[in-house]
């Protein structure tokens, strides 16, 4: 009896493994996913833990010899440190826009007249920090303080008063950085995975056949299912938004209409991606594995949870081709930093183009998948 039970157990296991092997998307995902996972975390959190070449902007408004000498000395020491990469400009507004877009993480401003002030025995340098990432803020602030303490020209460093502040009022924490990313991520991940799960489940249960036999056009079925996922994503994002504001005191400084526009574009784009991915699978388990394979790397490479600067350069290059990166960047810039439309316009237009292209590919492929 015992030998028979073991034999039957092995036969059942063999049957399931054979079925698993025959479905290639499952097999490929099972092999590739753990490899991607380990490589991702291994390179995201290197053993050295060091972040170098943090971009900052230096605004030089004082063109006097003393002011230029002071600014040049700071730029030289900052570049020599290896921690900072310096971009110089004479426009505060341009530098602030770069800070909003996370192209720089601090702005050092040498205001007009600082050379004259130093000649009189004093002077103030203004430093605007990113605020949304305490780890990077601490590193940048410490390095800037150290650089000013080393400066010996054109006057004593003790004569310089370095004032640190942020673009947004009040004290910010790490959750100010996380909340916009969580809201955006919750909204669009539902659109990506929900459609695949719904379609594959209905196909397995046989209810999809009933829909196809009903006097309903294929496009109505496709867009109806897509609309359902858009509503689900919107509801999920509202829940996360309310919790962030009520329980964690996250402030909203941006235009609500622009925030809604960015989220809507993101949900729409990822609903199209869900349609496209669903076209290649026929069962629920394969759909789940493929969605996991797509979602998981995007969550960590999009900047939703970690700043992109923490990634090695080649992972940053990958992150720049992910649509979630632009949704998170635009939504965070608008929600927390009150970015004008001109600052997030590249992300908005890029997402619109991406959405049109994805739907142009997804709709005919999804139609064929529904009827096959």
Automatic annotation (TrEMBL):
Keywords: Cell membrane, Membrane, Transmembrane, Transmembrane helix, Transport. It is found in: Cell membrane. It comes from the Archaea. Residues 144-369 form the ABC transmembrane type-2 domain. GO terms for molecular function: ABC-type transporter activity. Its main location: membrane. The chain crosses the membrane at residues 27-45, 177-199, 230-250, 257-281, 287-306, 313-333, 348-366. GO terms for cellular component: ATP-binding cassette (ABC) transporter complex. Pfam families: ABC2_membrane_3. It is a multi-pass membrane protein. PANTHER family: MEMBRANE COMPONENT OF ABC TRANSPORTER YHHJ-RELATED (PTHR30294), MULTIDRUG ABC TRANSPORTER PERMEASE YBHS-RELATED (PTHR30294:SF29). Belongs to the ABC-2 integral membrane protein family. This is ABC transporter, permease protein. The lineage of its organism: Archaea, Nitrososphaerota, Conexivisphaeria, Conexivisphaerales, Conexivisphaeraceae.
